[in-house]
Amino acid sequence: MPNILIADDEKEIIRLLKIYLNDYNVLEANDGQQALAILNSQQVDLAIVDIMMPKVDGYQLITKIREKSSYIPVIIISAKVSLSDRILGMDIGADDYITKPFEPLEVQAKVRAQLRRLSASDAFAKTETVTVGDVILNVSECTVTKDGVTVELTKNEFKVLELLMGNPRRVFTKEQIYESAWYDADSVDDNTIRVIISRLRDKVGAEHIKTIRGLGYRYEE
């Protein structure tokens, strides 16, 4: 049974989510410090994280989760609803973002979807590298090098680059690119995609990532 960490200082929200996530073993934390203690002592298969928590806030907690693992799915549930908050949450490593008040059935569905993807990823047993031109992407180690020099990428930048490099010259729509990193096509934001593409061009070379006007983007040697 997967372990689901819920970190939220509102105990009523944890009680509500436990009802809808009764197929999983729920680990409760009422602040970020408690959540970190759980992460360091138990296996966590997915984390649901509030942003505004005492002691250690959600952004700090997600950063610590990403230092521990690149593959633990993280879902933010927060009252912070601005676009900048959503982008920040995704940039530091969240896989999904749900605003309060929320529909518990939506959370339930998103948890199932994230765990399915995690299971499929584990079954694939990623060990291969992808080489296109002067860029090498190591899937199992989550590293990228260009001309032998390591390129530092965020989790979402890596996932987008993995999609593009794994299918060179294939055109991907913004929705497909968004799903590769965040898995939520219903909340696609064009500015988020432009920021990720711009950063990747700076890091691996603008010549590699081409814009196909009206369609999307593709990777070229």
Give your account of this protein's structure:
The chain is of the alpha/beta class and 221 residues long. It folds into 2 domains: 122 residues, Response regulator (Rossmann fold), CATH 3.40.50; 91 residues, Winged helix-like DNA-binding domain superfamily/Winged helix DNA-binding domain (Arc Repressor Mutant, subunit A), CATH 1.10.10. It has 8 helices and 11 strands. It has a 5-stranded parallel beta sheet, with helices on both faces. The chain has a 4-stranded antiparallel beta sheet with strand order 6-7-8-9, covered by helices on one side.
Order of helix and strand elements from N to C terminus: EHEHEHEHEHEEEEHHHEE
CATH top level assignment of the largest domain: Alpha Beta
CATH domain fold name of the largest domain: Rossmann fold
Number of strands: 11
User: Strands across the major sheet, in which order?
Assistant: 2-1-3-4-5
Q: What is the percent of helical residues?
A: 40-55%
Low-pLDDT stretches are 123-127
Based on the structure given, which CATH architecture of the largest domain is correct? 3-Layer(aba) Sandwich
Query: How many whole angstroms does the radius of gyration measure?
Result: 18 Å
Percentage of residues in strands: 15-25%
Largest sheet: 5 strands, parallel
Shape: elongated
